Description:
By secondary structure, the chain is mainly α. Helix content is 52%, strand content 3%. The protein is built from 5 helices and 2 strands. It has a two-stranded antiparallel ribbon with strand order 1-2. Helix 1 (2-22) packs antiparallel against helix 3 (77-86), helix 2 (60-71) crosses helix 3 and helix 4 (114-134) runs antiparallel to helix 5 (137-152).
Amino acid sequence: xxxxxxxxxxxxxxxxxxxxxxxxxxxxxxxxxxxxxxxxxxxxxxxxxxxxxxxxxxxxxxxxxxxxxxxxxxxxxxxxxxxxxxxxxxxxxxxxxxxxxxxxxxxxxxxxxxxxxxxxxxxxxxxxxxxxxxxxxxxxxxxxxxxxxxxxx
Length: 153
């Protein structure tokens, strides 16, 4: 039962990521302009407080592109955002459960915190996206709390 729920959640996660990362327009007759990145900077510029985001999944140009599409109600980006909003991982009431030590064995045997680490990671990502799109600081605070709790447990 738990595995089926995890698989269902992963399908939603893959859908959201696919929409965001590929920016595919469903209408074949309309060409989608994806912003071209300027020459990448070898070392990211730190923020005023010294934090440098690694930018692993999305570049700032991709995020800006997605936010613009969502804010102008363009499809399929708006539909992907609507699904993201309904995801339990994007909920401010999401309950995370950090583990002191995580052990992910072959085929999840043993599974000590392995699934929870994945779920909480998805919550951090979804809530971070919600913050970037909505500018509601509650999402940023919640995502930061999850990360901080995992790092100090």
